[in-house]
Design brief:
There is one protein chain. Helices cover about 40% and strands about 20% of the residues. It is α/β, with parallel strands linked by helices. Strand 4, helix 3 and strand 5 form a beta-alpha-beta unit. Helix 2 packs parallel to helix 3, helix 5 packs parallel to helix 7 and helix 6 crosses helix 9. It is globular and about 70 Å long. Bound molecules: 5'-O-[(R)-(carboxyoxy)(hydroxy)phosphoryl]adenosine and zinc ion. Zinc ion binds next to helix 4.
């Protein structure tokens, strides 16, 4: 009889600093989360109505060591127990990415452990696998975040092919900008969702761009944004829409928020169905902050039932930025896809090595 070999557990520290969350997690090769910490910077950016890159990178600098310390503490391990350190190095804000990458490299040098690169967008899709403990690959992945609204054909966790995306604003960006126009606090997505709860989504029929072009896997939200602006200030006027919004009854703000949210959701749901039909794929994974939107989740679930497709949407805490989704590094660890210590950041470029 061959003796049973017990393989040691692999533990990877994952670091996420692509935008305005400083996050770290310790994950195992069986996708168990031993510890996870997310330090949000929302309060720092709120008064500016959006993320200020310089403030974000400074805050990451202050937070990165305490966040990693706390993660290791929660995981109940020592740094020396780690098998690798993984870090999101693309895409994101340059200054923010640099902080995470520098921390990861320093740890790799000190601990003599391998370095793994994480693509932040791919990690958002991988969050579905972690949450459901079920393999969603191959699938169509839709990432809807503050900076991206992109479709991918995800053959495996290591093989993502871009299929198309927004030609102007990202969905989250549209939420953030319209929230600012309505005088609602940053981040705009949750504020608009809350305001929309009391609103009627049928009050205004805002545009649903590109839905009439089923072969084009693209989004456009700038016309929708302009439509909201015109509703508030009228065409050709330079008045700050937030000033007008401040004088409107709460019900009117709720109705605009609900009508806007409905238009974004209809575009996201409609284009997802078009992507599935066009590619013949039967599984859809959603990731990114906008996938936390309740109306979107509800309408996508209904559409998935009608179309008989498998739908994976991670729980809300795994939709917005976190380091647990960096467990995609486990796949790279097994494939021995390690990086040299001169690994760079790629703020705009989406690498798929
Ligand atoms: O993925 P994420 O946390 O960070 C980026 O990678 O960008 O996404 C942040 C975006 C923000 O634009 C935020 O307004 C949006 O996700 N968001 C939402 C909701 N929660 C966050 N949008 C709509 N509804 C939500 N509930
Ligand atoms: Zn993100």
């Amino acid at each position: 009889m061959t003796p049973l070999m017990i393989l040691p557990m692999i533990r990877i520290l994952t670091i996420e600093t692509t935008c305005d969350e400083t996050a770290a997690a310790v994950v195992t090769d069986s996708l168990e989360v031993l510890g996870s910490v997310v330090a949000s910077q929302d309060n720092l950016h709120q008064k500016f109505g959006g993320v200020v890159p310089e403030i974000a990178s400074r805050a990451h600098l202050e937070n990165i060591v305490p966040v990693i310390d706390e993660t290791i503490h929660r995981a109940g391990i020592l740094l020396s127990d780690l098998d690798a350190v993984a870090v999101a190095n693309t895409p994101g804000l340059a200054g923010s990415l640099l902080v995470g990458l520098s921390a990861a490299k320093a740890l790799c040098v000190a601990l003599r452990k391998p370095l793994i690169a994480i693509n932040h967008l791919q990690a958002h899709i991988y969050a579905c696998k972690i949450a459901f403990r079920e393999d969603p690959f191959p699938c169509i992945g839709l990432i809807v975040s503050g900076g991206h609204s992109n479709f991918y054909r995800c053959a495996t966790p290591l093989d993502f092919t871009p299929l198309g995306g927004t030609i102007d604003d990202a969905a989250g960006e549209a939420f953030d900008k319209v929230a600012a126009m309505l005088g609602l606090p940053y981040p705009g997505g949750p504020s608009i969702q809350k305001a929309a709860e009391k609103g009627n989504p049928k009050t205004y029929s805002f545009p649903r761009s590109l839905l009439d072009e089923p072969d084009r896997l693209a989004f456009s939200f700038s016309g929708l944004k302009t439509a909201v602006r015109y509703r508030l200030v009228g065409p050709g006027k330079t008045t700050d829409p937030a000033v007008i919004a401040a004088g409107l009854p709460k019900q009117e703000i709720a109705d605009i928020a609900a009508s806007f949210q409905e238009a974004v959701v209809d575009c996201l749901v409609g284009k997802s169905i078009q992507a599935l039909r066009k590619t013949g794929m039967k599984t859809l994974c959603l990731g990114g902050g906008v996938a936390a939107n309740e109306r979107f989740r509800q309408k996508m679930e209904n559409a998935a039932k009608n179309e008989q497709i498998r739908l994976f949407i991670a729980p809300i805490t795994l939709c917005t930025d976190n380091a647990v989704m960096g467990a995609i590094a486990v796949e790279r660890f097994h494939a021995k896809l390690f990086e040299p210590l001169d690994l760079d950041i790629y703020p705009g470029l989406i690498r798929n090595k």
